[in-house]
Amino acid sequence: MVDQWAGIRDRVGALGAQSASSKVFGSLGHRWALEEPLTESGVAELEEQIGVRLPEEYRAFLLQVAAGGAGPAYGLFHVRSMQDRWHWEGDGADLADLSTAAEPFPDQGPDPKALEELLTQRPEEEEFDEIEDFDDAFEAWDEQWAALMFAPERTAGAIPISHLGCAQREWLIISGRHRGTVWSDRRADDIDLVPLLDDDREPVTFARWYMTWLERAEHAALTSPSDT
After folding, report:
1. Kindly report the CA angle at 85 between 207 and 12, in degrees rounded to 5?
2. pTM (2 d.p.)
3. How far apart are CA 228 and CA 217, in angstroms?
4. I want to staple 34 with a disulfide (CB 3.0 to 4.6 A). Which of 19, 52, 69, 116 is the partner?
């Protein structure tokens, strides 16, 4: 079988050395740096901690390419061990509840009827004489909304792997029937998680997600005007 990750570190390094690479979205965040890969024993410890084997494409990436760094948007979240406990580091990585990593990722999010009913109760500023009263009412309503949209069980069996800015993230599903696919998280914009799809409407796996980014970044750097 062809090793899909062969030469990827070199390609990322070569891309980062080009002056035009700074024009690639998110590159000022990850600066084209890649962490060192994990060891087999490190990955085994991580999997034992979370209770599930990582999807093969992602697992191989951690072992052969990097434990995080240059990647889609502002980069791939880092996988690190601290005080004998493994965790992911990144903007929003703490949204993951690793105690539920082995549980199947749910097919659907909050009950649409519950969301619709709550939306009808959303306070409007013009309904209040005092802005402080509106702020208090909206804060109470927003807590109920967040409890539905960001319920911990929504992301069981998944880990966030990248941050796109504006509280938008992407998650890798590691357990359940969607295992190995990447999902978009725009709950900050009141949009539930949805799977990323390719041009053929097929779910995007981790390798496809990363390689598509790399190929597009290489093209963008190649076609961008030089600063010199």
Report:
1. 30
2. 0.91
3. 20
4. 69
Alpha carbon dihedral 183, 185, 190, 192, in 10-degree steps, equals 30
Nearest Cα residue to 158 out of 104, 211, 196, 113 = 104
Indicate whether 1 pLDDT > 50: no
Instruction: Return the residue matching tokens 């880092």.
Output: 78
Residue ranges per structural domain of the chain: 8-110+151-223, 111-150
Q: Which residue has the higher pLDDT, 77 or 226?
A: 77
User: And the tokens for 40?
Assistant: 């087999």
Q: What is the DSSP letter of 85?
A: E
pLDDT of residue 48: 97
Distance CA 55, CA 217 (A): 25
Per DSSP (E only), the strands in 43-195 are: 78-82, 85-89, 158-165, 168-173, 182-186, 191-195
CA 126 to chain CA centroid, nearest Å: 37
Structure tokens at 228: 């010199």
Report the C-alpha gap between 30 and 32 in whole angstroms.
5
Tell me the pLDDT tens digit for each residue of 158-197. Answer: 999 999 999 999 999 999 999 999 999 999 998 899 999 9
What is the distance between the alpha carbons of residues 71 and 48, in angstroms, rounded to a whole number? 26
- Segments of 84-198 assigned E as strands: 85-89, 158-165, 168-173, 182-186, 191-195
Task: List pLDDT tens digits, range 3-48.
Answer: 889 999 999 999 999 988 998 999 999 999 999 999 999 999 999 9
Q: Which of 91, 93, 90, 107 is nearest to 194 (CA)?
A: 107
- The angle, 0 to 180 degrees and rounded to 10, between the axes of the packed helices 56-64 and 206-223 is 50
